[in-house]
Amino acid sequence: MKDNWGRFWFYAALLIIQIVLSGYVNVGPYIYLCCLPLIVIYLPLYQETSLSMLIAFGCGLLVDILCDGIVGLNAAAAVALAALRKPIFAAFFTKDNIERAVIPTIRETGVFRHVNFIFTSLMVFFLVYICLDSVGMESIQTTVLRLVLSCAANLVLILAIDYFMFNTRR
Amino acid sequence: MTGRPALVRIAINIVVFIALEVLCLVMIAGNSVVQRYKILGAIREAQSSIWQRTSEIGSYFSLKKDNRLLVQENVDLQRQLNEYKALAVKPDSAIVHLPGLYSYMAADIVKSTRGKQHNYMLIDKGSRAGVSEGMGVITANGVVGVIDAVSDNYSYVISFLNTEQSVSARLTKSDHFGLLRWEGVNPHKASLTEISLNCGAAVGDTVATSGHSSIFPADIPIGVISKIKPVSGLYLSLEIDMFQDFSKLRHVYIVANKDRKEIEELEEQGGQR
User: Which of A92, A94, B56, B157 has its CB surrounded by the most CB atoms within 10 Å?
Assistant: First the structure.
């Protein structure tokens, strides 16, 4: 029960960070800072994929509405990530990791694998997001640049959040 | 036992995923003009592609029916052509067309031989369809054969590619006529014999049926002259490149002379005298 409340506050904090990032932090047209992928990644692994997708859809929609963006854009990307979360996790982690790590954190899974996992997850999220956002209006080079820069920036952001939040909790 | 719930789970996940993504796309299209334009454009493109494929598949499966309709149309056109020809007879022509003298019926080849000296074919129309022995079998490209035997639903046709078969043919330029016969070697070539030396035949001239028999109507194009050889100083033997490729033959027309019995009876009476 206590653990559930902790998780709720954790997600609420991430949502607040997301709103602050979208409203007050401007890092140029090529980088979109977003901690919505982290919410999806940190959903418990034992959770059904369909339920994860519904939660991701709800969170994405909330971010879209609160951050005054195109409604549905974050939701579509979050749903895609939630759908592929388990296969991506299975690709990078051992069975032991999967059994032990209810929530995949650096502490549970190790730095190298965790970075790979987060980066792949971000690629999925931003691929859907940027493709739907630009829909043929931008050149391939611009799209790829946006994808790589956004993934790199968000990787740093997520690792920082991961380090501070989970190390503090320990 | 364990497979079924896993499959059900996967199916549920796929359904939920598609439903949520579609919902997202609808919301995106509703909130942004550019995205709406692009998404609807992509949907329309996919739709037209699917319609095109569906239409192509439909066309493929209706080919047989279309083919039958075309064959029937050809039969009707052949009949009309015959009637028009009869109306447009030149007064000095050696060929006389009688209106409505021939009737046509479409048939498909069930079996045929080509590699023998005495080739034959089976067609899918028999006595029930009104076919009888002695009727001709043609295509738009020439003479195919003569019906030799008939069962209820099939007919046995002696192919023109039979060394014992001959057809009365004429040069379309000069109206000289002779006997066209397959030599038994090349299925694309036949020879027209008993053509008089002064006929003025030249390589490339067209040969057609003469109409001097009760089996085949006149003016069915058969082929073109490819070689001219004098025979014994009196006649010419012409090598003909036939229009009809017997290896590609699938559909034919059975042609029936309505007055054939009457003509044959008359011939018999004449022969007795």
Answer: B157
* Residue A110 backbone zone (phi > 0: left; psi -120 to 50: alpha; other: beta): left
**What is the CATH superfamily name and number for domain B102-272?**
Rod shape-determining protein MreC, domain 1 (2.40.10.340)
Residue B153: C-alpha distances to residues A6, B110, B119, B262 (Å): 86, 11, 21, 26
- Number of domains within chain A: 1
Q: How far apart, in Å, are the Cα atoms of B127 and each of B155, B157, B215?
A: 8, 13, 17
**Coil vs helix vs strand at B130:** coil
Compute the distance between CA of residue A111 and CA of residue A57 in angstroms, rounded to an integer: 29
Q: Which of residues 31-90 of A touch B (CB under 8 A)?
A: 48-50, 53-54, 57, 60, 70-73, 75-76, 79-80, 83
The string of pLDDT tens digits covering residues A36-85 is: 888 888 888 788 889 999 999 998 988 888 877 788 889 999 999 999 98
CB atoms within 10 A of CB B51: 10
ipTM of the complex: 0.83
Domain chopping of chain B, boundaries: 3-61, 102-272
The structure's pTM equals: 0.50
> Which of B13, B23, B34 is closest, CB to CB, to A50?
B13
